[in-house]
């Protein structure tokens, strides 16, 4: 499967929200909403909110994307991803994500 690397390094191709959107799978939207409520301590997430084609792809985005500090930083600096930035391994915005999802950092490094 081809990877779709988000600004932060996550692989959108493996994201349940993208998969549910592309396949129009309402059951997966419901499962993802329930999982994300717990995972992100965000009780307001509903299945109707689970729509996204990917961080850097054309189309609909999950509501958080417009508020994502990482994505906004990448866009404001004219980068494609954080891999384009010389602060990749020392960035405070990425620190928490890459601590818990180290493959995101590996994905970004693979782009260079």
Description:
43% of the residues lie in helices and 0% in strands. With 112 residues, it is an all-alpha fold. It has one domain. The longest helix has 14 residues. It starts with 15 loop residues before the first helix and ends with a helix.
Give the SSE map:
Layout: H1 16-23, H2 26-39, H3 69-76, H4 92-100, H5 102-110
Helix pairs in contact: 1-2, 4-5
Keywords:
globular, mainly alpha, 0% strand, 112 residues
**Would you count the extended β strands for me?**
0
Strand content: under 5%
Biggest pleated-sheet summary? none
Number of helices: 5
Mean pLDDT: 95
**Domain count:** 1
Radius of gyration: 14 Å
Give me the strand/helix succession: HHHHH
Q: What structural class results from the helix and strand content? A: mainly alpha
Q: What characteristic shape results from the CA principal axes?
A: globular
Work out the helicity level.
40-55%
Terminus-to-terminus distance: 20 Å
Poorly predicted ranges: none
Quick gist of this model?
The protein contains five helices and no strands.
